[in-house]
């Protein structure tokens, strides 16, 4: 970043395209965030361009950073909302704690499913050769009924 240019841009106000480029997002995204209240309304230039000062740039940077954490729009709104009782850090930590607990639960479920599939795979591999070639009873973890059907 060219700091002399950046400070000049911030002094006069950064246009939405410049801000979008700086943050690696699109002007459309920034306009959407403004429309739902995640970003405050930007003052306008004489020619109606949105102009973002240093405070608005910092706020937009925060919103984009929170979205990069894969927080949903309502979660970002929750983190950004000043309630006077909890800090932004506390609200974000609470969301991250919940997300970690959910991920750990999801991983446990996936581990169980993986172990089950592995056991069924091993059982199918161990199917005796004298069984009919179409027999998959061992993968279903049930006694073979294929020999009785023939």
Query: Would you give the CATH topology?
Result: Multidrug-efflux Transporter Regulator, Chain: A, Domain 2
Portion of residues in beta strands equals under 5%
**Per the principal axes of the C-alpha atoms, what is the gross shape?**
elongated
> Which architecture per CATH?
Orthogonal Bundle
Low-confidence runs (pLDDT<50, min 5 residues)? none
| Radius of gyration from the alpha-carbon trace, in angstroms | 28 Å
Number of helices: 7
* pLDDT averaged over residues: 91
Strand tally is 2
Q: Termini separation (Å)?
A: 77 Å
CATH class designation: Mainly Alpha
Structural category: mainly alpha
What's the story with the biggest beta sheet?
2 strands, antiparallel
How many domains would you count in the coordinates? Answer: 1
Please give a structural write-up.
With 150 residues, the protein is mainly α. It has one domain (3-125): Multidrug-efflux Transporter Regulator, Chain: A, Domain 2, CATH 1.10.1660.10. Helix content is 61%, strand content 3%. It is built from 7 helices and 2 strands; from the N terminus they run αβααβαααα. α2 (16-23) packs across α3 and α5 (73-80) packs antiparallel against α6. The protein starts with a helix and ends with a helix.
Topology, element by element:
Elements: H1 3-12, E1 14-15, H2 16-23, H3 27-35, E2 51-52, H4 54-68, H5 73-80, H6 88-125, H7 146-149
Antiparallel strand pairs: 1-2
